Amino acid sequence: MRLYIAEKPSLGRAIADALPGPIQKGPGWLRCGDGEQAVIVSWCIGHLLEPAEPATYDPRWKSWRMADLPVFPDQWQLAPRDSVAKQLGVLEGLVRKAELIYHAGDPDREGQLLVDEVLRYFNVRCPVHRVLINDLNRDAVRKALAAPRDNRDFRRLSHSALARQRADWLYGINLTRYYTLSYQQQGADGVYSVGRVQTPVLGLVVHRDDTIANFEPKPWYRLTITARPSGDETRDQDFEARWLPSENQQEFLDDEDRLLDREVAEDIANAVNGRPGRITAARFRDRKETAPLPLSLSALQIEAGKAFGMGAKAVLDTAQSLYEKHQLITYPRSDSRYLPEGHLEQAAGVCQAIAKVDDSLADAASGVNLDRRSATWNDSKVDAHHAIIPTLRARPAGQLSQQERNVYNLVARYYLMQFMPDAVHREGRLDLAISDHRFRATETALLEPGWKLLEPRQRSSKTSAEAPKKPLPRLEPGDDVTCIDSTIKERLTQPPQHFTDATLLAAMTNIARFVSDPQLRKTLRETDGLGTEATRAAIIETLFRRDYLFREGRHIRATEKGRSLIHALPEAISEPDMTALWEATLEQIRAGDGDPRQFLEELKGQIRGFIRQPASSPVKTSTGTRTETLPQADSDGIHCPKCRAPMRIREGKFGRFHACTRFPDCNGTRPLEDSAPQDGTSQRPWPCPACYAPLVRRKSHRGWFWGCSNFPSCRQTVNDDNGIPVAVRRPPAR
User: Fold this and answer.
1) Which is catalytic among the residues 178, 183, 331, 548?
2) Is 376 exposed, middle or buried (CB count within 10 Å of its CB: 0-12, 13-18, 19+)?
């Protein structure tokens, strides 16, 4: 007997529909075909098995006691989930009879483990093939079924998933028990859940809330002039230009080059009013902008949050319905934004389907140029998944809800954009000098909208209400102008906004900005951040369910319980560095370069270190589970002024000095000093509240302040309070 095991019933039905009939229904299975050629299709219902509870290994572990920590099983066990035990029994009877099994889990790490763990649980010995299905339409499923692979080709992916599952169990069980018991000793009630991913996500929200709460607005002044080309007696060619500071005016500026002294602004305005000047530089060009790639799940969640105010879980549930129930879009839990080149053959059919499903896109779908080929068509960028796109199906399985229509519309728009012309922007810039003061005027206009005709309107966008800017006169360097007016506007510095579903998802997806170590930053950039496409929405919902977060309108805020936990945790737990190291190791395991047993043993050592350390004080740990480590730092507490890595003492021709441990990648140095450095490099790196690069302590004529090390790309500044950046300062633990 040949047996297909799908990840879920909807996929099982799609497989059966693609196989030769007739179809006979049974309890938890479908029989396709007659006689010896008959094939059985069955399915899991998510995970049928789960890691056993601690008490399964040792009765003492049923109760939570400090003396019993850490909880480390000697031999791992799985237990059937009560809610799906009946389906597990169905599969047990089927796999015992099977001569060949087809693994049809979702094409990702968890999908691989989900079916593999069932096969291991029943000690399956027959051959197992793997089929990868991204699209539930009949033709796409038939194509996937016709190209099976040996399941052993995916054993490293399965080992990676199993290592992740066991590591999450060890980390969550031990640290949740430890910090809950620690808080109970201090009189607190409830469970203080700690997780590898959920806790750094909570840390993002807490740090953002602290930044806003401690923010002190400061006034600053914007000076603009109205200039008129010489010989023009009308106002037709008048244009506005903003003041540019010079080197000798730095003392009047903050770290973002904003003018802080109104008297200086007034002096400059008086000096240039009515005075002649000259154009020093001019540049005008037409710039092309290519269409964005089709959507991954995170990109879809972010865009739907911006356009429709939908939460991350609502977007995922809606996309899953469009995939499983209506079969209108491809596999939604995808982290890819690229498409296989062979999919171009279906482009005409997909566009026709879009026109029938969504009337609002009918004109766009019929007017696209199918001969265009955007960067999304790239086989080398496609792994187990491809981008989320509409399918060839031209009719939903019933009436679509408003949310389903909205999500389908977004997916379809981004697909159609691939066949639209580039947008063309007209850009201009004029630099001018008047009485030794510099000014700059800019012009940006959309000359040809191209694909932007399909760009979704954002709920918070104000651009549609703004009048288009007047084009600049086409002047050349050396042309004369006259300042005919000046304006000084007082403004206040603004704190960052509280997170929303869309911005929190964006922060999780681009979490590398929060990590100061360049190697870790690269790892997180390659592994796409905190969590996976399939788990991010659930992680956020878990934090709400556990009373760590609450909603205030569209904004996401941390509760007192969440703030208290983050303020007490070691940085190694509350910040994303460890997740980066885990993902790097899991990727090494998937590639065959890492050992899952070594990974788990090193994690156990880290957990022992956390438990030995008092709960309210930070823990110093190694760089993590990677076999390669940074060079040993012997300059205790001194960090590089350039990249904030640890420093070591070296000998040079002029004597001993501090040198960055990342040399030669970083050549940061500093002299030996008798006291702690005043620039903050004796402290651990503080993250910039805007971009999460390390902050650097600097001194201006007004005193000490903290500025982003990513300047001038990021111009965030933070007030200083006795050597601590006050906007990101953590209150002491309770």
Assistant:
1) 331
2) buried
pLDDT in tens, 343-380: 898 999 999 999 999 999 999 999 999 999 899 999 88
In 3D space, the residue among 505, 383, 379, 312 whose CA is nearest the CA of residue 108 turns out to be: 383
Q: Residues for the chain: how many in total?
A: 734
Identify the band that residue 465 occupies on the pLDDT scale cut at 50, 70 and 90: very low
- If one counts every other C-beta atom within 10 angstroms of the C-beta of residue 46, the result is 13
| Cα separation, 203 vs 211, whole angstroms | 12
Residue 267, CA distances (Å) to 218, 257, 447 in order? 21, 18, 39
Q: Is the pLDDT of residue 76 over 70?
A: yes
What is residue 679's predicted lDDT score, i.e. its pLDDT? 64
The tokens 């086409």 sit on which residue? 474
Over the range 150-175, which residues count as b (16 or more CB within 10 Å of their CB) and which as e?
Answer: ebeebebbbbbbbbbbbbebbbbbbb
Beta carbons of 386 and 335 less than 8 angstroms apart: no
The Cα 134–Cα 383 span in angstroms is 11
- Say what the pLDDT of residue 53 is: 94
Which tokens is 551 given? 């909603």
CA dist 480 and 472 (Å) reads 15
Under a CB-based contact definition with an 8 Å cutoff, are residues 149 and 129 in contact? yes
- Residue 579 has a pLDDT of 77
Catalytic: 323? Answer: no
Distances (CA, A) of 401 to 322, 396, 397, 412: 10, 11, 12, 16
Q: Which residues contact 722 (CB under 8 A, 6 or more apart)?
A: none
- Whether the CA torsion 69, 70, 75, 76 is positive or negative: it is positive
Residue 217 in contact with residue 494, Cβ under 8 Å? Answer: yes
Q: How far, in whole angstroms, is CA 339 from its chain's centroid?
A: 21
